[in-house]
Amino acid sequence: FSAVRPLDLPAREIDTFKGDGLAFLLTPSRHFNNWYYAIYPLGLALFAGVVGLGGLAYQYSRQRHWQILDWQQIGLLVLYSFLGIGMSASFTQVWLGAGKIRHVLPISLALIPLWAAALVQISWAIRDWLEKSRQRHWQRLPVAVTAAVASILAVSFVPGNGALLKQYELTPMPVLLWRWTDANVPLEGLIMTPMGSDIANTWNRPWSGYDGVKSFQWWQEPDGDILKNTPEQLVERNIRYFALSDKDRADLYGGRLNELDAFLRQFTLIKTIPAHENIMGSTVYFYRVAAPQIPAQTVFGGQIQLIGYDLNTPELKAGNILKFRPYWRIQRQPATNYSLFVHLYPAAADQLIVQNDGPPTSLDRLTLTWDDPQEVYIGADVSLPLPADLAPGPYRLVLGLYDFSTGQRLTTEADQDSFSIPIEIPKN
Question: Would you say the pTM of this structure is higher than 0.85?
């Protein structure tokens, strides 16, 4: 066992501190900037006004030997604040858009009691002045001042805080996104998002709270490079999916939307999760980088359309595994939970060689839940072990949909109860 030094941990903030920390520490503008955002929860004018009056009240009360606060305790708060701001300025410059205000919130916890102490000192000074000047009928003035300040705070902050609390009653868009991917997207390759995307951490369990069954791998691509990629280059890097939001479109690509849309047209739009008044976040678009290998346009029962499929054609040899994946859309919501059959036959005979039956996608997305005509439903991965003694020659892969409870198959537009794919088993 060996101890790990904090500066050796892999973190962006640590890398920044080790690289430019000293220069940033000596940059006054960074300190003032971070001070501003540490005060931000109270408001700069309210904080500065009360603290300034508190300082004057402290000096006035001290000269007259009236009640004053313990300057050592106040000094500790101020010292902690200065040290904390210096520490944060050495590795980050806070601004609201990046969510980095978290780096100065510990300082806010010191500034709030400092502000409250100033308000207490003002109240004490007013109280003692009234006693010494024999204006006893005004002795409730400190209470009135405190009530007035509290009222100002209530008017200023309560409505905003109420709206913020109401916002957190909404379902965050990343939650909808991770639920959908967990049920619909197979574990294959990386999910790519733009660097700085508001959905970039959707599948990061510690950051987003993602609690899905599947452990997705993701990649954040720097904005300057992302639009230069082709689907082939992304697949070569094991990137299979791409996701972004309307907020990303506006914030990250506001001046390059034509270029972005040309980039996206290379992909297959799998799902659009629209924004809604009960959802916190903007519309999300989820793409599959590679289109189905072989397109198709067959509709079963006027309900479910086979739009394409993947088939490991180069590996179709005796003794190998035939791998097949369909891709579906719906013409209308299916009437029941259909099952998929996949059979292998000789080209000119009905002698069943090998078969597979199961849900068209997964048990998490039975067909009764298919309710979006624009969604592409990624089919189940079907594996058919080819017999070791399978003779070379032409074969046909036959697939279709049926009602498991009755065995009734759905028919195609050509009044066929299946779709046939010709394949060739070459000589070894």
Answer: no
